[in-house]
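Summary for the funding panel

The consortium committed to producing paired sequence-structure records for every protein in the target list. Below we show the first two records in order, beginning with the earlier of the two.
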Amino acid sequence: MSTESRSTGDQAMQALASLRLTMFLLICLAVVSIIGTIIPQGQLPPEYLASIGGEQGNRFKLYSLLGFFDMYHSWWFVGLLTLLTLNLLACTLKRLPHVWKLATRPEVVLSSALEQAATCRTELAIAADTDQEQLIKSITAIVGRPIITRQENELHLFVQRRPWARLAVYVVHASVILIFIGAIIGNLFGFKGFVAIPEGGTVSSFTDRAGQERKLGFELRCDQFTVSFYGAPGGGPSQMPKEFKSILTLTENGKEVPGYKHARLIVNEPLSYKGITFYQSSYGKTGSHRFMVGTTALTVSSDETAHLPDGSSMHVIEAVQDVSPFRPGKTGAAAQLDIHPANGGAAVTLVSLANHPEENKREAARYGLPVITYLGGSERPYTGLQVNKDPGVWVVWTGCLLMCVGLYAAFFLPHQRFWFRYAHGRLVIAGHTAKGQAGFRTPFDALVERLKTSLNKEETK
């Protein structure tokens, strides 16, 4: 290999291990994460889709091209994570040899340079005829087993505590790399999606975040769905759900899976099978509703948006067969509607009543809309489940555990070194710590006092 190619390789490694590159990548990840917070991910709400000009609008096409609607699975986001992983790996490989040398091949002789650089230093005057073996025993009992070096008329003792703590920061590096690897594995080989199952219905597939249908590999049946509500201040149920619960049965090849018959699924208690986890995320009703819009009959599905003759769009939020608990003095069926005017104005929420046409006319005149009369409909509840498979989750959890261990060792278990040099009745003691130098003086002074007491006892014998 030529000198020029080695130089190019060294420069590339230097750039990859640069702290500037680390900060740049972290800032980039923080900025693009804001995009993922502002722009809805996955299946887009109709309101947002309309606000950016629909699927034929230029903003929609640009955002789709850049992967903004599924940002955390986009090639460039995975690329940023990969580059940051390589950056941390390069930083580790560059600095690890020096730290490894400090931990495994320390300087065991207290030179003048080490004495000046030490965190703490003191000197004891002891008898010139002190038994060196007894001095070694005292230091061993108080500080730890020393490495003994004899140079001319000097006795050098070296003790270090927790030399492996020097590697704690690289354990943290490794943990971050593991977390990124787990995230990349999850992005590449995992998926997230949604499935709605009517009560009594069975599904064998779901819709992923890209809108594509995927097979589960088994069947999932909703045996029962129930929802309970908090009480309203004036009595009766409110519209705030207290708990919604699904009773599910898994079948495979026409046979019920043992242990998964009438399995309960509620919020914060997911159900997992074959690496796929189901979370209780939503609920609603499915069916169809009949309306008279002006003189035009219209049938609207519970989960779809219908277009009115004047160009407005309408979505059924909720329908009830008896409106009296919500509108005292009113009777009959009613539907709460979300309407987006054709002129792009603000969305309108109104209630269409089956037995009170005068109310419907008043609402239409108020908002400049055609008269909408609810004729009734049929619905049944459905349970909405989030479908998640993340094969990298255990890699991420391993990285998190490793990070906790590494951070604890890095901050609370510092590498400490002690040197002792004895010659002609003078004992020089130097100590150095990698972390917490301001607080090192107290334990160092306590160690010196214990050693002084031990040596005085030996002298009086």
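The next record, for a separate protein in the list, is shown here:
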Amino acid sequence: MADETFKNPNRRAFARTVMRQPATLRYGDTSVPVQTLDVSQGGMCLMAGRPIGPGTRGTVALTVPLSDGPAPVSASLKVVYSSYLSAGQFKIGTVFTELGDDAAGVLARYAAPPP
């Protein structure tokens, strides 16, 4: 057993990049202001003022700061976890369910190391 390679089932498929931007999460008839914490090609982590249940599907909209100017991004996502941090602060983990080529390009440019 000592020779077996440990495989972490929670290992992320993509590297995350810190991004602190205001955003809006919409699901059903609800619109919630959120703050982004980090982003990857596979999803993003958000901070919200209330819990959002795992399995909830919605759309996030934000403006990504790029060196040549801000770029709007919208993506469909699904909540995979919602963790209580403190009063009025919940960490919301998401995966993208639909990320268009333009949005994926903007996020890739944001995450790319500076030249």
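Regarding this second record: Residues 25 and 77 are 9 Å apart (CA to CA). Residues 17-111 form a domain with the Thrombin, subunit H fold (CATH 2.40.10.220).
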